Amino acid sequence: MEFRVLGPVGLWVDNTELPLKGIKQRTMLAALLLAGEWAVPDTRLGELLWAGRVPTTYQAQIYTYASRLRKNLGAGTTITRQGSGYLMRIGAARFDLREFEKLSRAGRDALRAHDPERAAELLRAALHLWHGPTLTWVSEPLAENERPRIEMARMETLENRIAADLELGRHELLTAELAGLVSAHPLRESFRAQFMVALYRSDRQAEAFATYQQGCQLLKEELGVDPGPALRNAYQAILTDESH
Q: What is the pLDDT of residues 157-216, one digit of tens each?
């Protein structure tokens, strides 16, 4: 059994998605999964399910959603009433976010231990767990509350994977990917710094310096700030030929 939130929220068995009816049932499943085996109060579930327009019968309806979810659960996976809320335990079932965090942490540790090949392998495996935009087919309140932190973790994992690939000398293969990332996230200095390094190592020095100048201008115009350590360090490394 596999639970997914890194894309459309759902429940899968043997590569077949089980039918979950409607956004509210998926929202409740995601809320319980993201609570990390802590009870979620009825009041909180009500806010997530009905976006501030909670009906007077909300507890009865939540009970119904919990009952429907239980019918799809396998052995070792439970949803139980605890106090004034519900708690979900998934046992040995696979949960894509939990697997992502495990692989990402191991990859980061490998990178810090100067094992870029192992790091790249682990971090790439973590990123392959995505099946689309995080937390789709759930209520807006849940997505707005939880999506940013998960997407931030994904971006950090992507940065680490690129760092590992740079250490492995894959700079020419990275330039197109990084060009797209800088275009999509023009104010994210880490991607721009990595793009500068990849360009410089690919003997495209003029483009590397132009990328730096464009970043400085954007930061000044959009945020009113000077470049941070990531951009400054990349620029200095290129000037002193220390980025190889």
A: 999 999 999 999 999 999 999 999 999 999 999 999 999 999 999 999 999 999 999 999
DSSP 240: T
Q: Whole-angstrom Cα distance, residue 236 to residue 149?
A: 31
- List the alpha helices (DSSP H) in 35-139: 42-50, 58-70, 96-112, 116-127
pTM attached to this predicted model? 0.91
Q: What are the start and end residues of each CATH 1.10.10.10 domain in the chain?
A: 2-94
Q: Cα–Cα distance between 87 and 80 in angstroms, integer?
A: 5
* Distance set, CA 215 to CA 32, 185, 227, 231 (Å): 41, 11, 8, 8
Q: Which residues of 161-173 are buried (b: 16+ CB within 10 A; e: fewer)?
A: bbbbbbeeebbee
Q: What's the fold here for domain 170-244?
A: 1.25.40
Burial annotation 73-88 (CB, 10 A radius, 16+ → b, else e): beeebebeeeeebbbb
Q: Where are the CATH 1.25.40.10 domain residues in the chain?
A: 170-244
Q: Which of the four CATH numbers 1.10.10.10, 1.20.1290.10, 1.10.357.10, 1.25.40.890 does domain 2-94 have?
A: 1.10.10.10
Distance of alpha carbon 41 from alpha carbon 117, whole angstroms: 44
Distance CA 193, CA 47 (A): 41
